[in-house]
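ping. complex inputs:
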Amino acid sequence: MELNRDDHLDVEDFLVLPHLETHKEPAATCSSLKAKPSITLSPVNGSRWDLPRNYEGYVVERMEGEDAGKFKVSFRTRSCIEIMDDGYKWRKYGKKKIKNNPNPRHYYRCSREGCKVKKRVEREREDEQFVITTYEGKHNHENPAAATSLPPHQNPLGYH
DNA sequence: CGGATTTGACCGGCGC
DNA sequence: GCGCCGGTCAAATCCG
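pong. complex structure:
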């Protein structure tokens, strides 16, 4: 029964979950990362997240207590930028220095009204090139940048 | 001018 | 009970 107690996740959890490790690219991809389309991940029924294409592994955590039934996903990315444009609009609401990690952690929230999705981004302790991103909650709305649902005449993003 | 950032303060949970 | 630690608030500020 005590196993559910500590299923919170640590950075170390990512290290043992290589999903696609062959996707190693030089740091030069930093700029193009923003424009890259995302992968839709549905590890749990009813849950859906948009991940960048070059993620290297992810962890899905089941929430407990009040938020029981909801899920949280964390993934690890090799990137020199922390803020990745995943199509949603994020409003930053906090920054915190975490123990055991010299790099600060950033807290974001979806700007959409009524959308309580949260996102937290932190750089890995040792390897500065790795970024850990965590999504929490479900979106109230569709991805505004989802190309499939865009009106036929409009193309604000991805237009080279 | 309206909305996003910034940044320290505040607060609640947990472990000792 | 107290202090550490992580998460959020909110006021000032910035920026397009």
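The beta strands of chain A are 38-41, 49-52, 55-62, 71-78, 90-97, 104-110, 118-123, 130-136.
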